[in-house]
Amino acid sequence: MTKAQKADRQEAIERLREFLKPGDTVHTILDHVSRSGMSRTIRVVLLRGDDALHPNYLVSRILGLRQAKGDGLVIGGCGMDMGFQLVYLLGSYMFRDGFDCPGKGKCHSNDHVNMGDERDNYSPDKHHRDGGYALKQRWL
Ligand SMILES: [Zn+2]
Questions:
Q1: How far apart are CA 122 and CA 103, in angstroms?
Q2: Residues with CB under 5 A from ligand 1 (ion)
């Protein structure tokens, strides 16, 4: 990756962070599955009350994915939930240093499942290291 590409990714991350915070849900729509089944086109939608945001261009720059004609992102791979995978990757890039717990009912970190004594700690000074769980994915 060149310096210019890195700067472009960073700029896209900062722009998306303005309206996508830890604890938010990212909806995905499956637009197309390739004939071979080896790649699919997935569109990302953020629902905000009556409005829907379509940040596919920003996501494509962050994840280095090509966009199909209908705005969706072309992602390779099969045999797992690629919608989950896409949103997990997005969270990992956007919150590279992890994230502070957004609180009970909002937080999707698996720390609350795995961490034993710490699992019920939803205080804001609780830091989760894996940014991939900052965002929740749901199919539309
Ligand atoms: Zn948490």
A1: 5
A2: 101, 107, 109
